[in-house]
Specification:
Layout (H helix, E strand, L loop, with lengths): L3 H22 L1 H6 L9 H15 L5 H12 L12 H19 L2 H6 L3 H27 L2 H13 L1 H22 L4
Helix pairs in contact: 1-3, 1-4, 3-7, 3-9, 4-5, 5-7, 7-8, 7-9
Amino acid sequence: MWSSRDIALVIITAVLVFVLTALVFQLATMLTGVQGTSFIFTFAFATFISLTFLLFEGRRWRFFCHNTLYALLSLPTSTGGIPYDIFPRLVIILAGFLLDLLLNSFYNYFKSREGLVWWSVLTGLVTFSIIPLMQILIFPIYFSSGFVTAYTNTVILMSPFLIGGGAVGGYLGYKLYQRVLPLI
């Protein structure tokens, strides 16, 4: 059974990530018109993803519900695809499911060895490896081959931002978690 704290965390984190997406993360895509350029803000996004995973403390299905709520809230934005198109958002939901299963399976291992900082860095790296990979694999179902080719090329060019931003964001998420944890 979920506590009211867990439900509140799912809602608050999903809304916070949505607000940041609407105000900041989709800015590069809006300015350039090139899907995938928002990955330049990976470090900020990874910070909040890692913080979210840490706040859920390895409990199953919280991150999946967080991602599902975020996908629904992001419908009017260009994050994940064309605004108001639900099908590309299914990638976000599926990624949330896989990330929840994969990363939360190792939470207790890292926590027992006092290595949550490494787990947090791992969440940033894995999240920004799986999401673009899944988008590249699933986008051909919904989008033209020209769009998918341009998106794939952009992701390849942005891969240093994905790797570096995921690692830096994971570390920053852990530091933020240390500051926020006493307040909760």
